[in-house]
Amino acid sequence: MPLDTVLCVDTSGSMAGRGMRELKEACRLFISGVQETERQTGLSENVAIVEFGNEVRLVAPLSHDYRSVARAVDTLAAGGRTPMRSGLVKAMEEILERGGIVTVRNGQRITPRVILMTDGMPTDERGETPEARAAVLNQAKMFGVRWKECGLPHTVPVACVGCGDCEPELLEKIAESTNGMFVIVDDVTKLSTFFRRQVLLTRFALQSSSRDAINSQDALRAFLIGLGEAVEEAELDGLFRLLVGMMVLDRIAEEAGAGRDQVITGLPVHGTRVKRGADWKWGDQDGNGSGTIAGHERPGVVRVLWDKTGKSNIYRHGAEDALDIEVIPGDMPRVLMNDERGDGHGLKAGVEVMRGPDWQWDKQDGGAGNTGIVYQVDEEERCVYVRWSSGTRGKYRNGKSGCYDVIITPRSAGEIGGQVAFGNRGNVIAVERNPPGEFRNVAAATVSPARGGERKHSGVRIPAEACTAVVDKLTADCFIGMGLGSHCWQWQGTDDMWHLFPDKQILVLEESLQQANRANDPVILVTEGIRYEIDLKKMTQTSLPDRQCCKVRRSALSNSDREMAEAMERSLYLK
After folding, report:
1. Is residue 43 within 8 Å of 2, Cβ to Cβ?
2. What pLDDT score was predicted for residue 69?
3. How many CA atoms lie within 13 A of 277 on its CB side?
4. Please, how many CA atoms are within 13 Å of residue 256, restricted to the half-sphere of its CB?
5. What pLDDT, on a 0 to 100 scale, did the predictor assign at position 92?
6. CB–CB of 459/443 below 8 Å?
7. What pLDDT does residue 342 have?
8. Interval 210-219: pLDDT, tens
9. Can you give the pLDDT at residue 170?
């Protein structure tokens, strides 16, 4: 069974003249390149052509009758507007009717792809409108995260190439939502180069002798260099990401849905906070900030969603013996600033959450008082995906049908420079500034307007240093204000030294101890991807992977004693 590629091309009026000549030449070059690949490998590739301009039509159905497809190219004509969404719909219809997944010689299964070319902004019956742009993005999601709704056999990546007056940001979002790629060329004469490299990418996949080879960006680089292609690193990255997007996961992962749901042993758990690592080479993709692991793509490769840019990409964490990203020590969640509330009702990837006013999922979170980390936000469905400290994961309502299963915790609802820090509908943290540079938490309340209820906690003074850019100490002071005490929890290492538990884990331990019905139940904590079981009766901690056990203790510490313990902990870490 051949591979399937649909060329979805813009034939609007702006492509008239030279633009149309260059587009036709690029399409012919692609077809002849596919023929050469068949000659070299014995494997063919079905090619279809869809045009969107004066009309939206299937110019040539998926076929490896290359002469017939080449003749169809001659019928392309420029005219009209740019109904891009309709063109993508037509491309999807062709894949649904005639496309499918193919298994190549190395055993890897490969999904169809769409190559989208445009030189302008999308239009609808009213012209270039925000609604036309939104419609294109929604349709792109049907190739990506919503592929099952359409009946596609798998996600279908879209490779975008733009020129002229196209909108790069739009093409980038299409590529991102479909696990594809995008390239902007400054002249239509360079379209042929893009199409030629798309052919070579397929040839690389077909000729690779093993799955390890097809999963190696270094191998792709060497392959292209060997053919005399001087590919810039940014385009190479895009080509490799497109190739990864075309590779179908194993059956179990495919049934689960995507990297968001599958778990691969040896990778940091979903929700882990990360930053650029020793082998980082991806420019400013991270906004020079922190991010959250949103999924496991394949062994040694994770998907990260970056805080500052809001963009998602895949990175090596062991693949090719490289570390593009590294885990941030300390197990600290993301803290939202005032200007980050926006969409998602205050919840974003990386923030810490706990049970909300509409919780109905029993002990799926490990029990009342436990916290979790959001690792993906589905704004369209108004749901979030959470990994709990117990290690379980789930999908929860974040405004869907007016319900909020989870709410942001105090230490993720930070405040900088303003008067009030708001969480989502179910959680409000109000903070006022008192000179000289001191802050006071005047209200930490859990509110459920739908039920008309409100539960307030006493105010507590917060030192000025608690309100730094990362609000490191906000949590501990708020916990004391919530009546959870000022006790310190520590575990004994193999060096016989006592080490502090992170603040959020202290909260879980304190609440578990105070609730009589939970005091006899083990508490599950996760630190840097490793699960630990705390026995509150025996006061022991057991590492679940290797069953190593150590002592745990709970003691009352003054603020000065606690600060001294924290300082000692930092000094040990620095050594």
Report:
1. yes
2. 95
3. 17
4. 17
5. 94
6. yes
7. 47
8. 666 676 788 8
9. 93
**Low-confidence spans in the chain with pLDDT less than 70:** 1, 105-106, 209-213, 215, 249-261, 337-346, 414-486, 514-521, 556-575
Single out the residue of 192, 206, 197 nearest to residue 224, CA to CA.
Answer: 197
* CA dihedral sign of residues 561, 566, 569, 571: negative
On whether the CB atoms of residues 349 and 364 are closer than 8 A, the answer is: no
Mean pLDDT of the chain: 77
Task: Answer for the pair 318, 300: CB distance below 8 angstroms, yes or no.
Answer: yes
pLDDT at 57: 95
Of 453, 454, 456, 357, the residue nearest 408 (C-alpha): 357
For residue 552, list its beta bridge partners: 491
Lay out the sheet containing 291-298: strands in order across. Answer: 312-316, 301-306, 291-298, 273-276, 325-327
Cα 544 to Cα 97, 524, 526, distances in angstroms: 49, 9, 10
Which amino acid appears at position 418 of this protein? Answer: G
Cα separation, 145 vs 125, whole angstroms: 27
* Interatomic CA distance for residues 373 and 344, integer angstroms: 15
Enumerate the β-bridge partners of residue 474: none
Which helix (H) or strand (E) segment is 479 a member of? helix 474-481
- pLDDT at res. 327: 92
Q: Which helix (H) or strand (E) holds 36?
A: helix 18-41
Determine the pLDDT at residue 434. Answer: 36
Q: What are phi and psi of 245, to 5 degrees?
A: -65, -30
Asked whether the CA dihedral 89, 196, 282, 274 is positive or negative, the reply is positive
Query: Which one, of 397, 392, 401, 398, lies nearest residue 363 by Cα?
Result: 392
The predicted-structure confidence for 240-252, as pLDDT tens digits, reads as follows: 888 888 877 543 3
Residue 334 carries which DSSP code?
A: B
């298994």: which residue's tokens?
103
User: Which amino acid appears at position 517 of this protein?
Assistant: N
**What amino acid occupies position 393?**
R
From CA 113, how far away is CA 381, in angstroms rounded? Answer: 26
pLDDT in tens, 123-143: 998 999 999 999 999 999 999
Burial class (CB in 10 A: 0-12, 13-18, 19+), 284: exposed
Place of tokens 């900088």: 416
- What is the C-alpha separation between 80 and 98, in angstroms, rounded? 28
Whats the size of the chain, residue-wise?
Answer: 575
Other C-beta atoms within 10 Å of 130: how many? 7
The answer to pTM > 0.85 is: no
| 8 Å CB contact between 96 and 151 | yes
Q: What is the dihedral of CA 19, 142, 287, 292, to 10 degrees?
A: -160
DSSP structure string for 174-232:
HHHHHT-EEEE-SSGGGHHHHHHHHHHHHHHHHH-SSHHHHT-HHHHHHHHHHTT----
- Is residue 271 within 8 Å of 374, Cβ to Cβ? yes
Q: Residue 413: phi, psi to the nearest 5? A: -95, 65
